[in-house]
Amino acid sequence: MGKLFKNSWALFTGYGIMMIAHGFQGNLLGVRAVIENFNFISTGTMMSGYFIGYFIGANVVPNLVQKVGHIRVFAAFASTASLSILIHAVFVDPVVWICGRFLTGFSVIGIFIVVESWLNDRANNRTRGQVLSIYMVISFMALSLGTLLLNFSSPEKYEPFILISLLLSLALIPILLTKRKPPKFKKIAGIKIKELYKISPFGTVSMFCTGFIHSAIFTLGAVYAATLNFTIFEISLLIFIITTSGALFQWPIGYFSDRGDRRIIIIGCAFAGSIFSYLAVASSGASLENMYLATNVDMDKIMFFIYVTLYAGMALPLFTLNLAYVNDYVPKEKFVAAGAGLQIIFGLGAISGPIICSALMYRYGANGFFVHLFIFHTLIGLFGMYRITQRSYQENPESTYTPLPRNITPLGIELDPTTGADISSTDKK
């Protein structure tokens, strides 16, 4: 492990710094949007701009990497992301911010592709599990730390935007100074959506709904809290709890999912997410019938944070659960291709998630955020119960649950030892 980290420290360091900035940025913009009195629809559309850029970039960047190389692409996109956040600070306008979020999403997926491609090259079949573990820990820890930076300075000031820009620029240094040669890039083809649905209707629908859920959580969670007049510390604590709880619950949920019908675990997590969404609304001082009356004054914050902790623990592992479940029905050599196809499905849901969620918040007030989560968790649970009656459980001993960050690309999925992908390292020393 030590040798592995020594050989890849520049890559891990640059990626970690970038993820800290990434975790900070989305929440900062959400809080600032509330301060600037952006309506919910404008805010949701702005947040969707990120996922549109992310989705388009996933299809464009691989060709770009092949043409100009890893280092140039990483430098170009880190610089673009750094410029984008400064544009947000100078031009406080919903339309400009939508364009800025698009640029950020396009740049971020480019960076992820470069990093994960590089990690694939640094790993071999003996070490890739260790590489994935380091990558996953850095992803979760950096995102969590990034949320706490909301306390750095007031969102109304320039300083937070400048700090994000500085962090993104700093992420460039270790990568650009590395002496190691960049790897050869390879494309990974995915399974078409129609074929995936035929293979696993429940896994496909569940992943689509999960895109609606996860995108709303990480783009409008801060907006929800700011609308109810949470302090900056409370907002940062809320997002930190969501990120951390979602990461920690991955292991016990994955353990149980590998020991029986994985659909039961997915359905259980889905309905538990629905229950805790409702309880979060109730703890805010409102019910589903009078959500407009919710105020920060009436909120039982201790119970609210407890319910959100439990909610995140159920909701965030759904991405990896869906991936593992679909793999139960495909041969080992197609695990990565199935993951690539599911990423597209997740992305389509993620693009629409903030828009629909913001529309519900516009209609029902801030608690429309939890109405959105309640609806899509319930859809997963109900469709899962239906599919159990249509298909018997099929055990695949080669398919196991491996905790993965939600932002992982097919190149990162290939690092999972269970995929059986042929990974060879260029480091022959």
Provide a descriptive summary of the structure in words:
This protein is mainly alpha-helical. The chain has 2 domains: about 1-185, Growth Hormone, Chain: A; about 190-410, MFS general substrate transporter like domains (Growth Hormone, Chain: A). It has helices at about 1-35, 40-70, 70-90, 95-120, 130-150, 160-175, 195-200, 200-225, 230-250, 250-255, 260-285, 300-315, 320-325, 335-365, 370-390, 410-415. Helix 7 (about 195-200) packs across helix 8 and helix 11 (about 260-285) runs antiparallel to helix 13.
SS elements, strand count: 0
- CATH class of the largest domain reads Mainly Alpha
Biggest sheet character: none
- Range of helix content: over 70%
The N- and C-terminal alpha carbons lie at a distance of: 16 Å
Number of helices, counting only DSSP H or I runs of 4 residues or more: 16
Low-pLDDT stretches: 425-429
Q: Measured on Cα atoms, how large is the radius of gyration?
A: 21 Å
List its traits.
73% helix, globular, mainly alpha, 0% strand, Growth Hormone, Chain: A, 2 domains, 429 residues, disordered C terminus
Layout of strands and helices, then pairs:
Elements: H1 2-35, H2 40-68, H3 70-90, H4 94-122, H5 128-148, H6 159-176, H7 193-199, H8 201-227, H9 232-248, H10 250-257, H11 262-283, H12 301-315, H13 318-327, H14 335-364, H15 368-388, H16 410-413
Helix pairs in contact: 1-4, 1-5, 1-6, 1-8, 2-3, 2-4, 2-8, 2-14, 3-4, 3-6, 5-9, 7-8, 8-9, 8-13, 8-14, 8-15, 9-12, 11-12, 11-13, 11-15, 13-14, 14-15
Concise synopsis of the structure shown:
It is built from 16 helices and no strands. The C terminus is likely disordered.
